[in-house]
Amino acid sequence: MEGMSERAYAEHAGISRGAVQKARKTGRLVLFDDGSINAAASDVRRGSATDPDQQMRSRGGFGAGSDVPATSSPGDSTSYIKARTALTVYQAQERQLSIQKKKGVLVDRARAETLVFRLARQERDLWVTWPTRVAALMAAQLSADMEKASGKAVTIETAILQRVLETHVREQLDALADLRVSLE
């Protein structure tokens, strides 16, 4: 036999024989052709594929009831720890966004753009119809005011006043159409 048996490797690694069998099934052990365990290569592979905190807790070195905190030492920094840290940061950011959404601080961008567009459309529609609604009233009021001031009967045509108002309102709306709302 070139390498170690499951029982010998379990004693060498400080884990149970069941953990060795599980590591063998999941491919975390390096085996020789005769099925024995290559201890040095298996230690490296198991170390890179297993949570370092879990390894320490399984050995009884860290965790519940221990005075030493259940965290990895700086020497244990592996890709697993980096991935776990990234996941934790992502989850915290996601929770923060969810809280801000519930508080009403954040809104859905597509919904906000739709609402802004709808509001602008309603505003534009009101201004486009405004000359038609007020032209007759304005013509009558101007005619009355000019008659008082000059003492002569003056008539301002409603259609002419409406055309003048429509021209100026459309110019103003064209100028406002150049404004763009950016939600970025």
Automatic annotation (TrEMBL):
<feature type="compositionally biased region" description="Basic and acidic residues">
    <location>
        <begin position="1"/>
        <end position="10"/>
    </location>
</feature>
<feature type="region of interest" description="Disordered">
    <location>
        <begin position="1"/>
        <end position="22"/>
    </location>
</feature>
<feature type="region of interest" description="Disordered">
    <location>
        <begin position="41"/>
        <end position="77"/>
    </location>
</feature>
<protein>
    <recommendedName>
        <fullName>Elements of external origin</fullName>
    </recommendedName>
</protein>
